[in-house]
Amino acid sequence: INAEYMGRDLPSHVSLKKRHDIPESVRPPQDSKKKQEESRKRKLEEDPDEDFESTDDDDDDEDTAELMRELEKIKRERQEEHERKQRQLNERAEKEKQEAILSGNPLLSGSSVAVSGDFKTKKRWDDDVVFRNQSRTEPELKKRFINDMLRSDFHRRFMSRYMK
């Protein structure tokens, strides 16, 4: 047995990384709200006459109410703008529809075509071409199905063309 091993054949990553303890100074604060509530309770127990929360909460409530009013105003303005744009789009679509209806009927339109009575259709692009309908005189070859590859029309044409 050969005792030599390639580096690729050896096992790798056989041990898991261990988690190290994180010191308190680096660790992120957890349950900060609970700590704040506990400190407020302690302060209230020590001096129940003082009201620590009233000033902050009143300011926060006023600010929140003002922000909510402003938010409602912005929403209302956006809604009005959206409705105005929709009305404009609908009016524009109606005008285009009416114009299409009126221009589609030459009897209702006040154009020169209706006045002159010239209702000719447009000429085709190949009406004035010199070499038009040349294939009318040539007889059409009817394709026929033959189950033998050597006797088929394709094979006969191929042989006559390329194997003279």
Fold and architecture overview:
With 164 residues, this protein is mainly α. Helices cover 50% and strands 0% of the residues. The chain contains 4 helices and no strands. The protein has helices spanning 32-46, 53-104, 112-116, 153-162. The protein is flat. The mean pLDDT is 79.
Radius of gyration: 46 Å
Structural class: mainly alpha
Global morphology: flat
Oligomer, anyone? Answer: single chain
Low-confidence stretches: none
What is the element string, with H for helices and E for strands?
HHHH
Straight-line distance between termini: 71 Å
Strand content: under 5%
Number of helices: 4
* Main β-sheet description: none
How many extended strands?
0
Helix content class: 40-55%
Average pLDDT level: 79
Features:
164 residues; mainly alpha; 0% strand
Which helices and strands occur, and which strands form pairs?
Layout: H1 32-46, H2 53-104, H3 112-116, H4 153-162
Summed up, what is this model?
It is built from four helices and no strands. By secondary structure, the chain is mainly α.
